[in-house]
Amino acid sequence: MAVDLYSIPVKQVHGIKGKKPDELLALGISSVGELLDYYPFRYEDYTLRDLTEVKDGDKITVQGKIVGVPQVQMYGRIKSRMTCKIMVDSLFITAVWFNRHYLKPQLQADAEIVLTGKWDQKRLHLTVSESEFPGKGTSQTGTLQPVYSVTGTLPQKWMRQTMKQAVTQYGHLIPEILPHELLDKYNLMPRKQAVTLLHQPGSLAEGLQARKRMVYEELFMFQLKMQAYRAINHDRADGVAHQLDLPAVRAFVRALPFKLTTSQKQVLAEILHDLQQPFCMNRLLQGDVGAGKTVVAAASLFAVVKAGFQGALMVPTEILAEQHKRSLSKLFEPYGIEVALLTGSLTDRQRRDVLASLQMGMIDVVVGTHALIQEDVYFRQLGLVVTDEQHRFGVNQRSILRRKGMNPDVLTMTATPIPRTLAITAFGDMDVSTLSELPKGRKPIKTYAVSHDKLDRVIGFIRREVASGRQAYVICPLIDESEKLDVQNAIDVHAQLQFAFPEYRVGLLHGRMAAAEKDAAMRSFSENQTHVLVSTTVIEVGVDVPNATLMVVYDAHRFGLSQLHQLRGRVGRGEHQSYCVLLADPKNEVGKQRMQAMTDTNDGFEIARRDLELRGPGDFFGTKQSGLPDFRLADLAADFATMEQARDDAAEFVRRPDFWTAAVYSPLREYLQREDVFQNELLD
Ligand code: ADP
Ligand code: MG
Question: Which CDD domains is this protein grouped with (predicted)?
Fold first, then answer.
């Protein structure tokens, strides 16, 4: 019988006592299993180096013999600089210690010493960070030492010792979970060995082998979960096979004020196909800003309503909800389709009315924020949920609906461009559709980056656009993530611009305004009652006013690249030439690279690639924006090939009947059970 390391409390490891269990808990570690899963994020290299092979500035460890008398210079009572001549191989170097003159008595002539520090090639100086005398006590010389991410209260050294102890006590009990066929296929080491080596690699090569094994495991388990969801969903066939009136949908599309792009047609066909299948659609629709996702959603909702069901459109902000409500009402009006709004700013009475009409089926399509599908909201027959510009429609939300006896198709739309291959893999439980082109006739947005001292000219530019009938957005700087200061800024800029343009109306929009005020501000801008809209980033996503042709961003260097691209996407939505002016500090280095990227390209996928480059994969993929999963070891950019292998393997596994029965796969099935993959099943 295997021991479950996750049920053994950490205090069973010798040396973990007193406050330590609590401090470990702050890192999310309460069991031995979790402790062993806490891998180092890098290694400190104490292997001995040959001075002929190192470079200036390297951090190195060398062994030598003390040949001189240490010299100490004091600066006050605590600060000091101590130097000593050391012979390393046949070279005399100077070791330098700062503020550690208390070591002086130990520096005896002729003694052997091991020094770690930063190498100054020109002066043959080594600035020492750590020193050891061979043969005395435990030694780290010649080893790689793991570096753990620890908080102030847990010293790195303690963590190293504790991990060592944990590995000694429990390492032999670490169970294998991958079947042999996979270990053999990729030549992976057993789990026991991999975990041990991750904590205590003999060499960097060993550490990398161990990492390879654990990265594969991490990605395989993730994919197994995704593929299992998918398989269960497809097998269950308990969705609605909608009887679509395709000629009516075609007529709806033909009546639109524009022709769909090839890409839109194709994506719509994919969705309509899914809607007619007996399983639940779970599809991701991604497309760059301005690619025209909304109208695809509208046609899909139309199809479902015509088939006798209701639809819901979920958006992240009230501003967007209002906007979508308006445009859907306009599109659906000729067909007698009822659209309603359900947001937090309805009065109790209004809300009660909407809820009642929804339940009775008098409302066909409801638009609202997240709470829309939760709590006390009941539909007569919900057929399709569309989520716009937000994160995935989670398993949780699905099960909330299922509990209410609804099992709708789900379409998730996102404007965060993720390379298609990556999306397919990372969202393994969804099907992915991509809008790969913008509507025809769009003129590429011209983007300029200028410094703030050009503000006068920028104001002149705004005047020119407004004078020719167009409109402009002015986005105010973010300050220290403090919403209060952002708001103050917007208020100040608004006052300045209203002063500069006495002949025009300047609107204001920020997060502290009441919902009704926000809506009024947005509405008057979209109806061209206000000509310039000063706003915080609340308009970042989704807002659609085709007559707006100029986007000005103050302090643009403070914004992330994807965010700037989203903001720029608010213009260039109509037939007029559009512009984006980024006011940025030319001395800000990161900012400069971002401005370069923005002026170089309008392509969201290219922007995402540059963003990834500038921020590093950890950051990019870690952001909530991307909605991509976070991994312990794996790096989606560097380990992408492994992710693809893992996906193919996992997909094959769940298709095999013996996967669900054979004893060798029981650790994998137990994992799926723990991860609640079968949760929906149990609810039935
Ligand atoms: P996003 O994909 O960013 O959500 P929207 O759906 O808001 O984009 O569409 C952007 C603008 O393009 C809207 O004003 C919309 O009416 C318009 N549009 C959508 N599809 C087409 C098309 N095929 N031809 C011309 N304009 C279109
Ligand atoms: Mg949109």
Answer: DEXHc_RecG (cd17992), RecG_wedge_OBF (cd04488), SF2_C_RecG (cd18811)
